[in-house]
Automatic annotation (TrEMBL):
Full protein name: GNAT family N-acetyltransferase
MF (Gene Ontology): transferase activity
Domain BioF2-like acetyltransferase, chain residue ranges per copy: 194-329
Keywords: Transferase
Region span, Disordered: 372-395
SUPFAM superfamilies: Acyl-CoA N-acyltransferases (Nat) (SSF55729)
Organism: Corallococcus exiguus
Biased composition annotated in UniProt, kind: Polar residues: 384-395
Short name of one Pfam family: Acetyltransf_6
Amino acid sequence: MSTATTTRIHSSIQHVPQALWDEKLAQGHPFKSAAFLSCLEDSFPERKFGYLVMSQGEDVVGLAVITEERLDLTLLMPDRVGALAKGVRRVMPGFLSLGLGMVGTFETAQRHWWYDARKLSEHDFAQALLEACDEVCTNSALLLVRDFMEGLPEDLRLQSWFLERGFKPVANHPMAMVTLDGMSSEEHFQRLKKKSRQNLRKKLKDAEALGFQVERVRDFRPLIDACYPLYLQVHEGASEFKRNPFPRAFFETIAERMPTTSSFLTLRTQEGQLIAFILTGTGGGVHNPFLIGMDYARTEGTPAYYLLLWKELEHAARHACRVADLGLTSYFVKQTVGAELEGMTMAARLQSPWLRPLINPLLPLLLSEKQPEERRRFRVSTPDDGQQPPSHKAA
């Protein structure tokens, strides 16, 4: 006799089986974990969170995260439009903003769902996911289901289910991933193509000549006051993937709730002045440099970014991580250090049945992200040239 499936939607990750969430959905990724999502909930109280939990008797057979918020469209427009909108919003609070519902969050990537294919059909899970979106995203004009990995047949099948129901495919930024699978940083360096090795060696030697000092800090709470303005510099200067900034309290919450998996990698001048940092998560075989902050006046024209990325890869290799998730954007540098670009797509649909026939066909053009050029990362032949990256103070 088959067991009936029950569906519940919870407003907080605290009401979801967190160990199962970390195993099945986060799959060890520190910044997709239940602890991380609790930090997001507290940092963005204006955002609505919904967690789909599907069960058969005592067994959980499906999980997903759904969010709803107001998307500030001026983040996608020239700065002068944003300045104008601020004035108009004094009398029209919703001016140039859009109710956006998502399967997923802006801060996480790749799959935002899991289901047990032995006990639940693809159709039943997708139907329940769509119904949950309708229940959670009551004020959304646009719905996004993200992210489908282009290299995974099961993801493409699930995406097809949504496309058959009026959604349109939208290209997201690709993920920059370095697969290590037990390699040391020296072994990874040796497999890079010759031009990348030469470029990276020069950058690291230049950093050493400048006296740059890197340090990994576990309890980074005393550094938040100094680091947060550096994060805002990078956030305000971003030309891709713009969104609302994290509040300062987000860093404090991460430090308190993820003390064993989070850290700061800091960069200082020879005189000891803090000029850059990366908020990083390590756990479950995944290493993820998540947020960066930099003093542009002191780092522009220097190899600071190359140095920080390479130290993150060294850390990932030292801790036997199978993969380093380098995230989105800045793809040229990330491919130089060996990152593969993994394509991601989304399914998008207007919620209004009246506007859908007119606007839905335009969504791929309006919402798709420009895809970066993919470059060859590794050498064609395998002989060792006998050269290693220059040593630097360990992080």
